[in-house]
Specification:
heterodimer, A: 319 residues, alpha/beta, seven-stranded parallel β-sheet, 13 helices, 8 strands, B: 717 residues, five-stranded parallel β-sheet, 28 helices, 17 strands
Chain lengths: 319, 717
Amino acid sequence: MDLIDNILKGERAAIAKAITLVESSKYSDQQISRQMISELIKKPGKSIRVGFSGPPGVGKSTFIESFGSYLVSQNYKLGILAIDPSSQITGGSILGDKTRMVEISKNPNTFIRSTPSRGSLGGISMGTREASIILDAAGYDFIFIETVGVGQSEIVASNLVDIFTLIVGPGSGDELQGIKKGITEYADIFIVNKNDGELKIEASKTAADYKSALSYYKKLDELEKQVLLVSAIEQTGMEDVIKTINQIIDQNKLKGIFEERRANQLEYWIEEEVKNIIASDITKRLSSKGNISKYSEKVMKNEMSMFEAVETITKDTLK
Amino acid sequence: MTNKSNNGFNTWQKSFEKETKKNFIDARSETDEGIDIKPVYTKDDLENFSFVENNSLPGQWPYTRGPKASMYTNRPWTIRQYAGFSTAEESNEFYKKNLESGQKGLSVAFDLPTHRGYDSDDDLVMGDVGKAGVAIDTVEDMKILFNSIPLDQMSVSMTMNGAVLPVLASFIVAGEEQGVDRSLLSGTIQNDILKEFMVRNTYIYPPEPSMKIVADIIEFTSKEMPKFNSISISGYHMQEAGADNVLELAYTLADGMEYVRAAMSKGLDVDDFAPRLSFFFAIGTDFFMEIAKLRAARTLWAKIMKDFGAKNERSLILRTHCQTSGVSLTEKDPYNNIIRTSYEALSAILGGTQSLHTNSFDEAIALPTDESARIARNTQLILQNETGVTKTVDPLAGSYFVENLTEELSKKAWDIITEIEELGGMTKAVKAGIPKLKIEESATKKQAKVDSGSRVVVGVNKYKNPKEPSVDVRVIDNNRVRDDQIKKIQAIKESRDTTAVEKALANLTNAAKDETNLLAPCIEAIKLRATVGEVSKALEQVYGRHFAKSLSVSGVYGKHFEGDQEFMKVENKIKEFENLNGRRPRVLVVKMGQDGHDRGAKIVATSFADMGFDVDMGPLFQSPRDVAKDAIENDVHAIGVSTLAAGHKTLVPELMKGLKEIDPKSKIIVFVGGIIPEQDYEFLYENNVSAIFGPGSNIIESAEKVIDLITDNLSKV
């Protein structure tokens, strides 16, 4: 495929078109997309995929603008996949992330793509994993995946990346109750943003709260979770972030955790893909037969038990 | 409510309900501000007032009836027409012509690069030089601007907020080099930065240092320029951006309170500077509401200043300039604008304004021509000389309706002011983006009312003119202006004492670090021929440049169209598109260059999203190349360019070039909306623009055209 060659050459338009394909809900696009990804996966680049999540209002995009500027100034190539939370259930979305990434979006060494989350589980949209494979093949050093932190999203997002960061604001220590065990297993780094001006004391206090809470949940054989203080607007603490990321990646590689994670993710992905295909196939069959309503009427009229109806429909559909 | 025992009223109500076949309560109509207007007002409506005092007199507490006892009976309002044309030479000619024909003060409009602190030779401002106003790069330009205009006799109003320091410094130096001491200079500098963060976006630095600069100017002028108004606290641009009158009133006064606090923090006594604070309001087409707004503004400000501890009566009095609404002007059937402007002018006068600008009818399309400017000025001359409105002070006082409306507006505005104060004042509110979002919500509602036809705009959505008249507009050769300015900058840079300039600029940077008053070191640098851009950069080293976060409202537009046939038609086309293409149509809405008026872009973004488009919102002040990169990376189907400051002739071709450079096979289509003179249409189409939407375009129709164009374009191989 021409497209694959052009992606490997790092052509901006080709990368963009390829991401459109992997996000498409059209059947023929999905077929092409699977073939393309199968090819690209054979030609892995060297990217490190970093997930950034956190509640709305903590300055995620501003942090990414600030941290991203630091990385490009160090001559790294940076791809950003921003899952925009502003989508509505009806109607389209307003994708405003770029208004908060003014400086890095101009830089020729960045590629920034926003995707509406469409209310899908965990704020991860269809195609995010594939998009990161495309950017990897295209030669980007870092791939950032930015998601809005609500409920399940951290877990889904952490399944796509090599290292997962949670961004929080000063005073969010109170929310520690909410994060408890689950999140500590998924996040590798906690970044306390807004360590500036009037909020400085509060930010330090929050970082201390996180540290003590995290040590409480730490498992014996686990790496210490890192808590970092940064200010996105004053661009301070950025060297610490990249140093910490590199440290964790190096250690994980040494211990084989890096490969293990990627292997687990691949396994999970294949399983998800198979499930998705089966599920969409079943949905199609169910709707083409259209007999659920027929059976539900029977159940309503007491001509059949609920259990019998489910059994019959299942057998019929899987035939 | 009305006294039920009143027999006369009951009889009236019966007759009313018989005539209209409507319940009296249902016959009320709701304004944009959420005020219920009753079909009749009576004496009972003058009771239970908390703000308006029924028996007050003009020039007396709480100044509802006017700042002076005699008002226009002694001296009519000042006719003050805002103008600026590309170069200092042309503007100077224009001013002299206006002064000869009866105008008393002059008002300068600057071009966008000057506002944002860039010199004309900066690559970032390629498309903006000389657009929407005059380019000032050095004090030499300022001197040409006021050539043969004695600055000790002429009051000069300057609309400048971002680059206030270098521009005010240039004005002072120009005066001195004319032989006029700064203490004799009279006029006003807008210097109202807070509203820039809300609506107009011509700021340079972040909110806190910007507020410090405002305070510096108030401090300096209060000590050294006793005849100069240090600030013009402006609601105008809020209404232009779509704010209703309550929002305009409340936010303007809340801004004013923040400036008072900033000045007091410098150790100034409130009475040292408060008499020199002035205001600026927009006057739209809602006739009585606008009158009530000015009366309410004075009433509330007196109360506010009393609370600040002002002792001097002049500190309590709100004095204001007004301008008729630009956003009420239409491109369609443009002569209607003369009529709109006349009624708006009458509102401003009945509300008791101190000075007035009346818009030219062609301002929806371009800068005014000599002819249209003459009509605009004559509108005021006729009001002053032929109608008799100057003979009685505050003639609407005692009107049940107007007094009640004044009270209602005051109450509603006071609630919002209280909210802002509880947030910790306007600087904090602005940083959180709250006022901006409220104004955008109000703007979107207004647009939806026009598009759905529930608000009639003559010549636009009803009573359309089958034979649209063609109007001659002023054309500006932007490239010539830019080249001339660049030559002038080069000549000055060659002849000045570079070491001295560098030293002066370094002093300025240090002053910013030391937090001392910045105006004096600015004057030094400007005197030595430092440029506006250099001065701005010297401060930027300490303060940084501000980038605004953009928040968007959603669902506001769509709500007005539940069940609307046209709206559903577009929604269905989009659903069909999604089924066929595997994704929604995706559009990038952008502003390019230094034009920060983003009301139109925001309304298009939110309404298109409500119809089902995925809309990418670009940041402000993008270069065409940034836009091209953004569009291609997000693989959008179309780019919508919003343009209000005439930069499109340079910026759109650059965008096309940028797209082709990144992707020679790019199929992204480009449409343009905003203020575009008809003369430019052909040029834009020749540059492969797919569609052009002028002011007053119906958004649903525009959206339908865009989805059709995208569909057509995809079917072409």
